[in-house]
Write a structure and sequence with these properties.
The complex is a heterodimer of chains A (278) and B (262). Chain A is mainly alpha-helical and 278 residues long. Helix content of chain A is 73%, strand content 1%. Chain B is an all-alpha fold. Classes of the chains: A mainly alpha (278), B mainly alpha (262).
Chain lengths: 278, 262
């Protein structure tokens, strides 16, 4: 009985997590072909196809998309952390307002991710609310192009991922021992010094976790660059979609997915390690 | 002690998170056909939403897929979390834990692509699932959701010792009875939270659904996504207002329930 119960999750995970990932690896070594589905496997007579992976490593189009994704994800995670660290600490110390403030951070989430992106589209358009405000204030004459820029894309990413970054910092900050900061104050540290020297360093692991929690999904982000970014922001998520659905090149799309995974493997392992320790 | 800049960042962050939401709701009641322009008070966009059959159909499909995916995720994720927390060391435990957590850290495009390849391979090998649609989206969302449920259940069970279950066994309960009367009630709040989380994830997902749905399985987020590629319409404002109202009411209800209990 116990063995059977142990097998059930194992079988489910083998079928829906392990096998699909193995199939991505196989697909990356397959050949694009006419037909449905549009590929021929490595055992289809043509042997293993090493070209897809080589293409990802050598073609600047793919290399740039990977690099651009990493830069965008790093910027997003950095900006999120810059806001989320003080937010998490402030909420943890807000006393009886704590639950209400936490709800204020999480509630916008239930409007739905796409709807919030729609809101930004409406706000950032040439005829949108922000341009209207700028013109009403007499700051600009003609509308400033805001939508479909790198800035709009980053704004949307930070808006979407910020609450994820707040949670780990908040959770760690609630577990801090206030006696330590008190002790520093008793020993003559100014409040600012006690905060920087005692409180902040204890939160570094949580801040690293928050950074990675944003970085990892942001690196593969597809929807936000597609809706808010410029056409030339060819992040890897967009290129995977383009290769898969546009060019029907399943092997190259899979090779690109593998390359993304390879780049993220260190952040992922680091994140899991922080999770175990925290 | 809370330094001034910390407090300022809190309010700036909350204002930033709420700005688009507040404007969305305010302008949902504007008569103007241009989103975010005031044209006098009107409920016309709520009426337009109620008449948009494509969106309504997608919303109904999404609700069913999300409910099914969340239920499957609770069953399988719950079993996974329980096995990881209560079955002690066994061969393959580390592998099971790694696989259970993998969907949490894999980028969505990788998960979506990998699941589509699985469904295509299964179809050509055993003929099931025939084509892609609501069922394949449901399975994809259940896979992602079960990873979250497993983590929540495992950490809930790990926070309590096994002594209660052992006491029940010592007092003569069968393992099944001990599970049903002690372990399951202990897991219940995390199963409920996990169901809600899996439901929300499913209702918000574009990437997994784009990969695993055929033309027959257009969920609400996928329909919204294709609308938004062409720009924003005031109908979306109305939809956002309804969703936010539903979320606010749910949160208030959960809060009341918890307060009454605790």
């Amino acid at each position: 009985m116990r063995i059977a119960l142990r097998l059930l999750p194992g079988l489910w995970l083998a079928l829906l997590v392990a096998a699909p990932l193995a199939l991505v690896a196989v697909m990356a070594l397959s050949w694009q072909a006419e037909g449905v589905p549009p590929y021929s496997p490595p055992w289809g007579g043509e042997g293993i196809n090493p070209e897809n992976l080589r293409l990802i490593l050598e073609d600047p189009h793919y290399r740039d998309s990977l690099a651009q994704s990493l830069v965008t994800a790093t910027l997003t995670a950095g900006l999120c952390l810059l806001l989320a660290a003080p937010m998490g600490i402030a909420i943890a110390r807000a006393g009886r307002w704590r639950d209400a403030l936490l709800a204020a951070v999480l509630l916008p989430f239930w409007t739905g991710f796409l709807i919030r992106l729609g809101a930004w589209i409406g706000l950032l358009r040439d005829e949108g609310w922000i341009n209207g405000l700028l013109r009403a204030l007499g700051l600009v004459e003609a509308p400033v192009p805001l939508l479909y820029t790198e800035g709009a894309m980053l704004l949307g990413m930070v808006h979407a991922y910020l609450p994820f970054a707040v949670l780990p910092v908040f959770a760690a900050a609630t577990r801090l021992d206030p006696a330590l900061e008190q002790a520093a104050a008793d020993l003559g540290a100014t409040p600012g010094r006690a905060f920087l020297g005692i409180t902040l360093p204890q939160l570094f692991p949580a801040m690293a976790a928050a950074f990675l929690l944003v970085l990892i999904p942001a690196a593969g982000e597809y929807v936000i660059p597609e809706l808010l970014g410029p056409p030339e922001a060819t992040l890897v998520g967009r290129v995977v979609f383009q290769e898969f659905f546009g060019n029907r090149d399943w092997p190259v799309a899979s090779a690109l997915a593998l390359a993304l995974l390879a780049l993220l493997i260190l952040p992922i392992l680091l994140f899991q390690r922080l999770g175990r320790e925290g | 002690m809370m330094p001034g800049p910390v407090r300022a960042a809190l309010w700036a962050g909350i204002a930033f998170l709420w700005l688009p939401v507040v404007l969305l709701v305010a302008y949902a009641f504007s008569a103007s056909p241009v989103p975010f322009r005031w044209g006098g008070f009107s409920l016309r966009w709520f009426a337009a939403l109620a008449a948009n059959e494509r969106l309504l159909e997608a919303a109904w499909l999404s609700l069913r897929v999300a409910a099914g995916a969340a239920t499957l995720a609770v069953l399988l994720g719950g079993a996974t979390g329980w096995v990881l927390a209560r079955h002690g060391p066994f061969a393959g435990r580390a592998l099971l834990g790694a696989l259970a957590g993998a969907p949490l850290v894999l980028p969505e495009v990788v998960t979506g692509l990998s699941l589509l390849l699985l469904f295509v391979a299964l179809e050509s090998a055993i003929g099931w699932p025939a084509g892609r649609g609501a069922l394949t989206v449901l399975l994809a969302h259940a896979t992602l959701g079960s990873a979250y449920v497993a983590v929540i259940v495992q950490s809930r069970l790990a926070s309590r010792e096994r002594d209660l279950e052992e006491a029940a066994l010592d007092l003569g309960a069968t393992p099944a009875a001990a599970f049903a009367t002690v372990t399951l009630p202990l897991m219940a709040p995390s199963l409920a939270a996990g169901w809600l989380l899996a439901f929300t994830l499913s209702l918000d997902d574009v990437v997994l659904a784009s990969f695993t749905s055929g033309p027959a399985g257009t969920t609400l987020p996928v329909a919204l996504f294709s609308m938004l590629r062409l720009g924003m319409t005031p109908e979306v404002n109305a939809l956002a207002t309804l969703l936010l109202a539903a979320a606010g009411l749910t949160l208030a209800a959960v809060g009341l329930l918890l307060r009454r209990r605790g």
